[in-house]
Structures are given as C-alpha cells and as structure tokens.
Write a structure and sequence with these properties.
single chain; 182 residues; mainly alpha; MetI-like fold; 2 domains; 8 helices; 73% helix; 0% strand; flat
Length: 182
C-alpha cells in the first residue's frame, strides 16, 4: 500500500459520506433556489401546476414593483435594525460571557438564569413592554426596536459565547499575558 492512498473500504465510506453531505446541502439550498427562481417568473408561472423549475422567460418586473412601491425601504429598515442590534448583542454578550466564564460572576446559577430568560413567552411581556415604550416615547423608531431586539437576543449570545470561552484553555490567556498583552 502506498502512502496517501486509502483502502477500498474506507474510500467507499468516504464517498458515501460526501454523497450524503451533498444531498443534504442540496436539500437545504433548494428553498433559496426556489425563491430566487420565483422572483423571475410571471404570476402564471408561479401558480402553474405542475411547478415550473425554470422560468420560461426571465423578467425583472417583480423587482421593478419592489422599488416602485417602496418595499425596498422596509428591507433596508430590517437590515439596519437587525445589523445594529446583532452587533450590540454580540459585543455586550461577549463581555458578559467572558466575565461569567473566567471570573465566575454571579455564581454558578447566573448563567442558567440568563438562558432561562429565553423561555419566557414573548406574548407574556409584550403588553408591559408596549406600555413602557409608550411612556418613554420609544414607539415607532429605530432606537426602541434595536433596544428590544438586543434585549431578546442577549441571553442567547451570552449562553453561546460562554460555552465557547470556557472551552478556550486558560493557559492560552496566561501565555498571552507573559508575551506582553493586557
């Protein structure tokens, strides 16, 4: 047997795994392909039975309607709110997770309490939050929405980052301190 060559049985197992991974990837990417193709179809082609996999003639009128009706502004608003709130949640959540993982802030049960906040049904807190938002004038603005999204995503970020930071060896940080990093 030469170096770098797999035995026949292992090669077959590897080929089956790659084939399975390819099938699963195609399965998960199919909705993306379908939505992309629908954007170029006419209404008749969209509702055609059986479904048409490829549009008969590529047309861009759906995109024209998107820009003409101002719907693209809603997409831009969503991108701004999601991007800013995700960024804030990642920064604050990472700082909090580092404190929980390295310094044991809050004891052993604080991390469980933080993740338990994700289990609160949003419908249970929507009315009190709405009243608070009305009182402080945060309704119908970027700041209020970003604040709310950040508050709901922060427990998840803290939980995920805490697990990641705990897995990083403490010796790695100590060696960085020896090398002059603070």
């Amino acid at each position: 047997m030469r170096i770098g060559r797999l035995p026949a049985r292992k090669a077959r197992i590897l080929a089956v795994r790659y084939l399975g991974a390819g099938v699963v990837t195609l399965l998960f990417l199919f909705p993306v392909y379908w939505l992309f193709m629908i954007s170029f179809k006419t209404p008749d082609e969209i509702y055609h039975v059986p479904p048409l996999w490829i549009p008969g003639q590529i047309q861009f009128s759906n995109y024209y309607v998107l820009f003409r009706n101002g719907d693209v502004l809603a997409i831009l608003n969503s991108l701004i709110v999601a991007g800013v709130s995700s960024g804030i949640a990642i920064v604050l959540g990472t700082l909090c997770a580092y404190s929980l993982a390295r310094f044991g802030t809050g004891g052993e049960n604080l991390a469980m309490w933080i993740i338990s906040q994700r289990m609160i049904p949003p419908v249970a807190v929507v009315f009190p939050i709405f009243l608070i938002y009305v009182y402080f004038g945060l309704v119908d603005g970027y700041f209020g929405l970003i604040l709310l999204y950040t508050a709901f995503n922060l427990p998840y970020v803290i939980w995920m980052m805490r697990g990641y930071i705990v897995d990083i060896p403490l010796e790695l940080e100590e060696s960085a301190l020896v090398d002059g990093l603070n």
